Amino acid sequence: MKIRNDIKNEKLFSTGEFASIAQVTKRTLQFYDRKGLLKPSYILDNGYRKYTLKDLERLQKILMFKELGFSLDEITMLLLDSRKDLLNSIRIQKDLVNDKINHLKNVHESLGLASLKLESGNSDSEDVILNLIQVLKKDENLVEQYKTANNLRIRTNLHQKYSTAKVPWFEWLFSQLRFDHVNRILEIGCGNGLLWKNCSRSMRNRDIFLSDISEGMVDEARKQLNTYDYSFMVFAAESIPFKNSYFDAVIANHMLFYLKDFSQGMKEINRVLCDHGTLYASAYGKNHMKEVTELVKEFDPQIYLSDENLFDRFGKENGKELLSTWFNEIVYIPYEDHLEVTDSRDLADYIISCHGNQNERLRGRIDEFLEFLDCKMKQMGKIVITKDAGLFIAKK
């Protein structure tokens, strides 16, 4: 919080003026202040609170996310990504609103269909109600899909922005794939499809299926890619809807450790791979991003960034042994890289996007945490983060 009495070249608004132009009440501003969502940019020496146009932009985001169904705690975390320019922010909001519009159209059509069924007497009320509930529940998924996609973008951004590798991860990973005599390819856990986004090789005359358990991620991949070159599907890897020996290659990029049933997932991958088929499975080791864990533990020893150590489920150290049950020839290729992070806000965004309890532990302490990271960055100049990742290539 800045405390100044001689602010120049900036348009300032009193609390009353700010509430008036934003068409909200003073009580709303006070409530958002208490929740840590929106604090005035300046408090003058005389105690007057002054808001800026940047605060107005932040308020617009709060109101939009609230309208779209995010909780106040979720909005607090979403607002950490504050460096996004206004145009990019509005584009993201527009995409979310389009999803909401499409959902409401589906609800409207479902209500019309329900009316017709009840009027005709061809359906009982229980079936009609259950169908409507299923349609309405999809609205909850919009929020979850956005959070999942946004968190993935944030984590990918940190690696892309601060990597010291000679070749970016997805370009390197793609270069390891062998396409000779490979006509059918399945990627499980495709995420937002970035592996294929800058693909320099023509994928025509090949059948490429991109799948994910998350419908939202598959939608993101569709938006990123030319849909004529790929087929998109939603399913869990433990139940792959293809016949035996259908694929020449299966790709699992940082995905196998997410399998709910590892043995069943590997049985399915092995089943759909043809004789001499290849699995490309990336993973990371126990030292991967260890400095990030050390930082958050220094701030709060009770914070953990993942519910469990994913590398214990499938990682660099145990991957070959785990794969040997299903594959005869297994090699591991390391990826040489580390991060040199110079912006504490990018690091904060990454931490918030993780799968652990950090959001719960940081609730009400965000400013304190950001100040902690700022201090660390000033002391060190940059934060060097270990990367410990690579690729298993396994052949049947």
SSE blueprint:
Layout: H1 15-22, H2 26-34, E1 42-43, E2 49-50, H3 53-67, H4 72-78, H5 86-120, H6 125-162, H7 169-176, E3 184-188, H8 194-197, E4 207-212, H9 215-224, E5 231-234, E6 247-252, H10 262-272, E7 273-284, H11 290-299, H12 310-313, H13 319-323, E8 329-335, E9 338-341, H14 344-352, H15 358-362, H16 366-380, E10 383-386, E11 389-395
Parallel strand pairs: 3-4, 3-6, 4-5, 6-7
Antiparallel strand pairs: 1-2, 7-11, 8-11, 9-10
Strand content: 5-15%
User: Which outline best applies?
Assistant: globular
**What is the typical, i.e. mean, pLDDT?**
89
What would the CATH topology of the domain at 15-67 be?
Answer: Multidrug-efflux Transporter Regulator, Chain: A, Domain 2
Overall radius of gyration: 25 Å
* Biggest pleated sheet: 7 strands, mixed
**Count of individual helical segments:** 16
**Helix share of residues?**
40-55%
Q: Gap between N and C termini, in Å? A: 60 Å
> Would you list the SSEs in sequence order as H and E?
HHEEHHHHHEHEHEEHEHHHEEHHHEE
Structural class: alpha/beta
In total, the number of strands is 11
